[in-house]
Design brief:
This protein is α/β, with parallel strands linked by helices and 205 residues long. It is 43% helix and 13% strand. The protein is built from nine helices and seven strands. It has a five-stranded mixed sheet. Strands 1-2 form a two-stranded antiparallel ribbon.
């Protein structure tokens, strides 16, 4: 692709590194930005600079946050004895949008995937084990995608937690096999969460 300007080419090159954006899509975005008022483009760029320089991660659940504790962990209305284990912030946001979950979260930061070189030590699994070992947790809910990686991670977590004196449950399988939870509609996700079952039952099947 030939560019009329090195500045345009540089902007396209950086945008095309984003997931799902090829160089043609990036070029359309760059040309669109050039039509905008200068101050709006500056505000757009500044929002990402502030994001990178000022974003925090909750010291309890590891969700993205503006402060040391996220709003969920800081709330006195949330049940701290009930932990929902999620892959990343996108799934946490999807569950929050159902407005049915009153516990707190633990963001693993990914799923076990040997094919991608991701093992248990690459995720926040030991931090979850430490929370359970503190003795204040009554139930851990596995809310991971119904993919091979999600099932592998569920089973590994179950093996690590099964001797603990807590309830271990999993979201109901109303969600189709292979589905990513972040794309599941709120009604289905909320129903799957409220209809959760003991994790052992899913193994029996």
């Amino acid at each position: 692709m030939n560019f009329p300007s090195k500045l345009v080419e540089n902007a396209v090159e950086h945008l095309s590194r984003l997931p799902g954006i090829g160089k043609r899509s990036a070029l359309r975005l760059v040309l669109h930005m050039l039509k905008q008022e200068k101050n709006k483009v500056e505000q757009f760029g500044d929002s990402f600079i502030q994001l990178i320089n000022n974003i925090n991660y909750c010291t309890v659940c590891y969700s993205i946050s503006d402060t040391e504790l996220c709003e969920v962990c800081a709330s006195e209305k949330r049940d701290k004895s009930l932990i929902c284990v999620v892959e990343d912030i996108r799934v946490m946001m999807a569950i929050e949008n159902t407005m049915q979950f009153k516990g707190v979260y633990h963001v693993l930061g990914g799923l076990i995937s040997p094919m991608d070189g991701v093992g248990p030590n690459d995720l926040r699994i030991e931090q979850l084990i430490s929370k359970v070992d503190n003795g204040k947790v009554k139930e851990v809910i596995f809310a991971l995608s119904t993919t091979m990686e999600g099932d592998t991670t569920n089973y590994y977590l179950f093996r690590r937690l099964k001797d603990s004196d807590i309830k271990i449950s999993s979201i109901a399988r109303g969600i189709a096999i292979g589905d990513e939870l972040e794309y599941t509609d709120e009604l289905t996700l909320g129903t799957a969460l409220s209809s959760r079952m003991p994790y052992e039952n899913s193994l029996a099947k």
